[in-house]
From TrEMBL:
<keyword id="KW-0297">G-protein coupled receptor</keyword>
<dbReference type="GO" id="GO:0004930">
    <property type="term" value="F:G protein-coupled receptor activity"/>
</dbReference>
<dbReference type="Pfam" id="PF13853">
    <property type="entry name" value="7tm_4"/>
</dbReference>
<keyword id="KW-0807">Transducer</keyword>
<keyword id="KW-0552">Olfaction</keyword>
<dbReference type="GO" id="GO:0004984">
    <property type="term" value="F:olfactory receptor activity"/>
</dbReference>
<keyword id="KW-0675">Receptor</keyword>
<feature type="transmembrane region" description="Helical">
    <location>
        <begin position="104"/>
        <end position="122"/>
    </location>
</feature>
<keyword id="KW-1003">Cell membrane</keyword>
<dbReference type="InterPro" id="IPR000276">
    <property type="entry name" value="GPCR_Rhodpsn"/>
</dbReference>
<feature type="transmembrane region" description="Helical">
    <location>
        <begin position="73"/>
        <end position="92"/>
    </location>
</feature>
<keyword id="KW-0716">Sensory transduction</keyword>
<protein>
    <recommendedName>
        <fullName>Olfactory receptor</fullName>
    </recommendedName>
</protein>
<keyword id="KW-0472">Membrane</keyword>
<dbReference type="InterPro" id="IPR050402">
    <property type="entry name" value="OR51/52/56-like"/>
</dbReference>
<comment type="function">
    <text>Putative odorant or sperm cell receptor.</text>
</comment>
<dbReference type="GO" id="GO:0071396">
    <property type="term" value="P:cellular response to lipid"/>
</dbReference>
Length: 314
């Protein structure tokens, strides 16, 4: 796109895209997204309300779960405006600056989720490997410090992104490939030297996903070693069962990320719909699945839900 003086410039608006090839089924796609949002918002709000109201859940594990639920709400609300506008109202334009703001929040909450999952793995490590010092190690002040540290790290590492994009001219059109704004998507329509963006983007991914996933794996290696040292088979299963919810949450978060990376790297000729669908899975599935996983796999959460349900029936 060219300005009055013939030089590339930033467009006033960017055009969002739905799901390629499904133009005739937009109503069904809109319904699916609305259901996903409903499950995510209701589920995560229920977890937060339950932890606040139930004194029995005022424990480190559930404080971290509250952080995860709060972050999942942030992910959902970050994509909500443009996704609903695209699929429900067929309004596909977003202001350039609004797109940068959305991009910042989507990526910030995504990277925060990785940090929270790492904190939760540390919680499980202390609970199994050093249970007698669990309450002394994971005090309320330390949990708060960990949460603020995750927020500060994600905010600081993602803060340069909007400015790195803002400096670029856009000469390859203004059509994005998703119904929301992502940094890699914006790079496809930008021109000029995007090497700094790509290098910094790689640094952020390694600094967050790479380091976090490595320490999560290390935590579970130490947990597994401690569990195998337990003589009773029944006690081994009981110890591992306390980790199952977190393991499922980690898989729900990292498997789509790995799948998206593998497709982009090794299947560049994949249809556009494959890339779009995998990106949607990466953003929409974890916030929806996490409250379901913890409700099904955690006895205390199930008890709290049943208690509130039966109380409301009286």
């Amino acid at each position: 796109m060219l300005g009055l003086n013939g030089t590339p410039f930033q467009p006033a608006t960017l055009q969002l895209t739905g799901i390629p090839g499904l133009q005739t089924g937009q109503a069904w796609v809109a319904l699916i997204f609305c259901i996903l949002y409903l499950i995510s918002v209701v589920g995560n709000l229920s977890i937060l309300t339950l932890v606040v109201q139930e004194p029995a859940l005022h424990q480190p594990m559930y404080y971290f779960l509250s952080m995860l639920s709060l972050n999942d709400l942030g992910v959902s609300f970050s994509t909500l405006p443009t996704v609903l506008a695209t699929f429900c109202f067929n309004y596909r334009h977003v202001a350039f600056d609004a797109c940068l703001v959305q991009m910042f929040f989507i990526h910030t909450f995504s990277f925060m989720e990785s940090g929270i999952l790492l904190a939760m793995s540390f919680d499980r490590f202390v609970a199994i490997c050093d249970p007698l010092r669990y309450a002394a190690v994971l005090t309320n002040s330390r949990i708060l410090a960990m949460g603020l540290g995750i927020l500060a790290k994600s905010f600081a590492t993602l803060f340069p992104f909007p400015f790195l994009v803002k400096r670029l001219p856009f000469c390859k059109g203004n059509v994005l490939h998703h119904s929301y704004c992502l940094h890699p998507d914006l790079m496809k329509v930008a021109c000029g030297d995007i090497q700094v963006n790509n290098i910094y983007g790689l640094f952020v991914v390694v600094f967050t996903y790479g380091i976090d996933s490595t320490f999560i794996l290390l935590s579970y290696t130490l947990i597994l070693r401690a569990v195998l040292a337990i003589a009773s088979w029944e006690q081994r299963l009981k110890a591992l069962n306390t980790c199952m919810s977190h393991i499922c949450a980690v898989l729900a978060f990292y498997v789509p990320i790995i799948a998206v990376s593998m497709i982009h790297r090794f299947w560049k000729s994949a249809p556009a719909v494959v890339h779009v669908m995998m990106s949607n899975v990466y953003l929409f599935v974890p916030p929806m699945l996490n409250p379901i996983i913890y409700s099904v796999k955690t006895k205390e959460i199930r008890r709290g839900i049943l208690k509130i349900f039966f109380k409301s029936q009286c």
